[in-house]
Structure formats: structure tokens, C-alpha cells
Amino acid sequence: MAKYIAQMIVLGGQVVGRAFARALKQEIAASQEAAKRNQNRSPGTRAATTRTGITLEEAQQILNVNSLDTEKIQKNYEHLFNVNDKSKGGSFYLQSKVFRAKERLDEEIKSKLNEISDKKVSKDKDKE
């Protein structure tokens, strides 16, 4: 009887080990794919994604915006933040995701404005 129990434990360990190895391979592949997608972005965008832990696309999906329109972002942010207020029966987790999405979009807007101002400064220097 002990022999069969030992075999079952060994087989169970092998099954769990294979499942873990498969999951690890999938995670590595997903990580490599994300790194490839991130290579095509500007350094400012990559830094903002790393800092906030959320991609620009994910932030736009959370706040339901297609462009970096500050008014629409602010409007959607206020609505979603208030709807998910814990005192109103909302979810703190969702509220924090909304906050992080707004934070990410604000960083992207700031990055774009910095790029524009840097281009203007370099053009002005070229004219002189």
C-alpha cells in the first residue's frame, strides 16, 4: 500500500512540475513579446510605462478615451473615480486602477509637451 501512495505522490509531483514549467515558459514568452512591443516606443513612453506599471493603451481603455484629450480624460476620470468610491459601495481596487490610468495619461501628455517644447527650442537655435 505504501508503494502505491509513494507512486501517487511522485506522479502528482511530476504533474505539478510540468504545469509549473509550462506556466513559466508562457510567462517568459509574454514578457519577451511585451519587451518587443515596448522597443518601438519613445524613451519617455517606456519610462512612464515602467514608472506607473501600466501601458498607455491599458490606461486609455480604463478611462475609455481614444486620444490624449485632457478634457475628456478629466471628465471620465472624475466620473469613474466617484462611481468607485468605497463609501458609495465601490471598489478601492478599481478606483486605484482609474487613478493609475489617469496618472499614466498625464505622464504621456507631459512627455508629449516636453518633446514639442524641445523641438521648438532646437528650431529657434537653428534660426539664430
UniProtKB/TrEMBL annotation:
UniProt keywords, alphabetically: Membrane, Mitochondrion, Mitochondrion inner membrane, Protein transport, Translocation, Transport
GO cellular component term, pick one: TIM23 mitochondrial import inner membrane translocase complex
Keyword NADP: no
Gene3D superfamilies tied to this protein: DnaJ domain
InterPro entries assigned to the protein according to its UniProt record, in alphabetical order: J_dom_sf (IPR036869), Tim16 (IPR005341)
Gene Ontology biological process terms, A to Z: protein import into mitochondrial matrix
Residue span of region Disordered: 32-52
Pfam families with a match to the protein in the record: Pam16 (PF03656)
Positions of transmembrane segments: none
Predominant localisation class: mitochondrion
UniProt feature coiled coil, ranges: none
Localisation per UniProt entry: Mitochondrion inner membrane
Membrane topology: Peripheral membrane protein
Family per record: Belongs to the TIM16/PAM16 family.
The protein's name in its UniProt record: Uncharacterized protein
